[in-house]
């Protein structure tokens, strides 16, 4: 998949792009609703014998358009989003740098410059997609703005238990620590990625060495607590137990951000400086302050047993 970054104004040369079917949306999470749009794009492209493409935006429009929003945490920051879309066998990913100037385009200007201009022959989007200044362009107006240059397919709302599958709902479940419910909406477990960094190295002194992971601030992180996780190291998945928190047993003052430390089962490798992926499965308990190291060690052993039992039951693996 080729990733193309668009900074408005973007000059497109005639014949620069082959005819394509394109899907429009923000696609945060690349959840099952998004996947329905993306798979529809690929299917139509194959039928027409043209390229398949997705257009997304970065950063989130609210960061640009709302004065009180300075930072947005994503289910899938742009790098993760691109990885997931590539897995769905799409040819092009257009990442439009969202600015006030771009947001000021009239709906018909957006269509003229960034759909017709890209040699689009078919557009796919969800029923609630909007475009152009003030979001006045909708899936109802798109056929009119197309000037007969492309066809339009509207993907209807996808629901589960009478709830719309949406990034907002998924973000709420993450916030509540209900990570075991996410596969029904995402089609997979929630993941974050980051670099393994040096920490206090206290874990190894009490028999539970951990991989201290500096997760990108762009990720939406689950609430403080202890979790059953899998961690991807050098292309191999390992089971483990993760403490996400501030280590109150050892620290009187709270750090600016919580640490994410994974005790990986049956693992003894030096992975400092490596990028790893953490796959969040279920929340075991909240973080608490213990009276001393002995009580803490006993609890970590229980957490480990809990996680091992979880993986044996749900995945059937032996650790």
Automatic annotation (TrEMBL):
NCBIfam families cross-referenced by the UniProt entry: PRK05627.1-4, PRK05627.1-5, ribF
Transmembrane segments: none
UniProt entry keywords in alphabetical sequence: ATP-binding, FAD, Flavoprotein, FMN, Kinase, Multifunctional enzyme, Nucleotide-binding, Nucleotidyltransferase, Transferase
Pathway: Cofactor biosynthesis; FMN biosynthesis; FMN from riboflavin (ATP route): step 1/1; Cofactor biosynthesis; FAD biosynthesis; FAD from FMN: step 1/1
GO BP, sorted A to Z: FAD biosynthetic process; FMN biosynthetic process; riboflavin biosynthetic process
Catalytic activity entry: riboflavin + ATP = FMN + ADP + H(+); FMN + ATP + H(+) = FAD + diphosphate
Taxonomic placement: Bacteria, Bacillati, Bacillota, Bacilli, Bacillales
EC numbers, comma separated: 2.7.1.26, 2.7.7.2
Family statement: Belongs to the ribF family.
Pfam entry (one): Flavokinase
UniProt xrefs under SUPFAM superfamilies: Nucleotidylyl transferase, Riboflavin kinase-like
UniProt domain Riboflavin kinase: residue ranges: 185-312
UniProt signal peptide: none
Name by which UniProt lists this protein: Riboflavin biosynthesis protein
InterPro entries: FAD_synthase (IPR015864), Riboflavin_kinase (IPR023468), Riboflavin_kinase_bac (IPR002606), Riboflavin_kinase_bac/euk (IPR015865), Riboflavin_kinase_dom_sf (IPR023465), Rossmann-like_a/b/a_fold (IPR014729)
Alphabetical list of SMART domains matching this protein: Flavokinase (SM00904)
GO molecular function ontology, one term from the record: ATP binding
